Amino acid sequence: MVCSCSNAFHRMIPEMNRHHYAWFVRNCRLILLLRRDFSDGDLNIFRPAEWRWKLPQVCDDEWHHYAVSVRFPEVDLYVDGSLFKSEKKNPEVIDDWPLHPTKGINTTLTVGACWQGSEKKMKHHLHGYLAGLSVLLNKVERPSVLACLHKCKESLDVPPMELLEPGMELLTNSDLTELSIEGDNKTNLEVLIKKIGYTNSREFPTPGRRNLHLTTTIMCEHGRTVKVPNVESYVMVLPPQQPTLIINGSSNLASDYHDFRKGVHVFADVHISVSPPTSATSALKGAKIEQPTSSAGAQERKLDSCVVTVYPSLNPDHETLAVPTT
């Protein structure tokens, strides 16, 4: 999935093919390779360098979310947002020597394959699908964030259980991404399917297409089964429209020299207003847009940042901008 290795053919070591770190799948095992650099410790000490997890999820042909958290020499694996409980020989940990220093050799980071410096070509390609990849350097992510990355706060909206007629059964998986309805009441089956929805409670949903698959199997008398052609559909999550940001205030500030010596407020009458974007769907349908308000009746808005620049630059000997401490 991701690989970092030496990117050149070295004249002194023509067979050089050093993998610095990699995250890959082999023989239904999820493997992390992490070779410590020579500057990270004693060259003559064996250190953990490879972790091999044997997981049923790796080869079940289903989508899964994997995250690895490294506090060397401790390594934790999260599968679908849950911490993997290590066993006696799972993961299998392989020790190795640190990488010895070599001058004039850089590394190449690749996704989906690994660069072989000795052969000057890509090898060990990923035969599968990768929905996303992120790397957090010099930090360790919180378990709650890893769980959220898996669940994503989006799921199928399950029909109310009180709609189930006698003889009907409704089952879901733990992530509410799969739903199964069984029974012999055709009318109730139609009602339940019509009540299935899609919900996304993220404050800023990830735009994109969410594919939907409807599979139907009919059980006839004498145990014969008939498969109805699958139905394919999708939900398209549109990117959020940008709100309108308006900043009002005095554009010029004039004051006496003595006031400047004491300090003056340069944005004393500034006013920032945010106009909510109009929903494209609601606008097309002519629907009324209701905006949530706080208990005081004012619309709450979040600003990521506010940057103040001065041009020409201030004279540091006697000019400064200060931020209030209270």
TrEMBL record:
InterPro entries: CLSTN_C, ConA-like_dom_sf. GO terms for biological process: cell adhesion; positive regulation of synapse assembly; positive regulation of synaptic transmission. SUPFAM superfamilies: Concanavalin A-like lectins/glucanases. It is found in: Endomembrane system. Residues 172-323 form the Calsyntenin C-terminal domain. Gene3D superfamilies: 2.60.120.200. Keywords: Calcium, Cell adhesion, Glycoprotein, Membrane, Repeat, Signal, Transmembrane, Transmembrane helix. It holds the Pfam family CLSTN_C. It comes from the Eukaryota. It is a single-pass type I membrane protein. This is Calsyntenin-1. The gene is cals_0.
